[in-house]
UniProtKB/TrEMBL annotation, chain A:
A biological-process GO annotation: signal transduction
Protein's UniProt keywords contain Coiled coil: yes
Protein name: Guanine nucleotide-binding protein subunit beta-5
SMART domains cross-referenced by the UniProt entry: WD40
Species: Pieris macdunnoughi
Family statement drawn from the similarity comment of this UniProt entry: Belongs to the WD repeat G protein beta family.
SUPFAM superfamilies: WD40 repeat-like
Upper classification of the organism: Eukaryota, Metazoa, Ecdysozoa, Arthropoda, Hexapoda
From TrEMBL, chain B:
Listed name of the protein: G protein gamma domain-containing protein
A GO-annotated cellular component: heterotrimeric G-protein complex
Keyword presence, Metal-binding: no
Family designation: Belongs to the G protein gamma family.
Main subcellular location: membrane
Taxonomic source organism: Pieris macdunnoughi
Amino acid sequence: MAADTAVTSSPEETLASLVREAEALKQKLEEERQKLNDVTLSCVAERLEPITISNLKVRRILKGHQAKVLCCDWSPDKRHIVSSSQDGKLIVWDAFTSSKELTISMPSTWVMACAYAPSGNMLAAGGLDNKVTVFPLGGSGEEEPAARKRTVATHTSYMSCCLFPNTDRQMLTGSGDGTCALWDIESGQLLQSFQGHGADVTSIDLAPSEMGDTFVSGGCDRAVLVWDMRSGHAVQAFDAHQSDVNSVRFHPAGDALASGSDDASCRLFDLRADREVARYGRESVIFGANSVEWSVSGRVLFAGYGDYTACAWDALRGSRLALLPGHEHRVAAVRLAPDGTALATASWDATLRIWA
Amino acid sequence: MDMMVSTLQQQRAVTEQLRREAAIKRIPVSVAVTDIVRFISDHEQEDCLLVGFTSQKVNPFREKSSCTVL
């Protein structure tokens, strides 16, 4: 029966013919990409003025977690930050005053992902529990957010990353089960599954366009995949990294994206040129890049490393602009305030730092 | 038999993915990077971490101290 289906769908296709075609396509892809590789970014950038960012300092240290801080996200109000930790807690901070405003206990330790809804009225978090739980904030004063929690998404392995795709009604997740998934928050229903990674998905990011129907994912299969949210298909793949991809982030211009990898490099991929156009690293940087983030203009690429530092790269000239030392353990997450006025770093040293 | 069908299906998915990738339109790197450079130039003045604040008072994370360095 199954064999019948295979035959009817395409009488010509055999395993051998498909393998042959795949090899030919791979070669064609490589040739096409190479043909259009007429100049390097650093060559174009040579004519630009060098930049400096010497004033970036630690302005706040947020202390309160009992173990590794694994993720953080800014509220759209540009003032509050949510962080999640190995200690099983979700904390909402007032970054202006460094005070804790809310602590939520999660059902398991290793809360690897957390996110603020675009309205600022909801939080999402999850991790080793394989789930995303959402917590409505504010509203009727009596009930605690934890009492009004709702489980939205369930994967077959840990949930590594989550985001609200420009709406409070949906949730996009990435998981150790190798898939990404789009969920309806109200019903908890799976709207679309995205299958293509050969190993754990570590990071996702939404394209900055108004349409919001493209997102990118990075995984332990070393691949960066660009997805069409409506069709569920991967439309582009970048497999330049030599080790796990830990973080992916769209450039604010929208047609390029940065990745950070355990191979100690960050890379810039252009979607329209369909290839890597820049690489950020140096010989002294030997630890993995765990998280990447852009400045508002996209001139500066921030990265958090396993060597306890974060640093700022000139995205155009490829040079290192600043080293941000201070954390006493791996820097796990780097996030820019929505108005671009500050950078938050979250670390395995159990603290977050605000740089401005 | 089932195993063969599943291998065939897996390979078909891989090949179909490559067909989609091969079908996309590409532009020269020179054009792509020129657009990135233009976007950055257009937005550099809004980038507080790059150009700083017009006044430190505008910086919500400025040191809350009335002392000044003499």
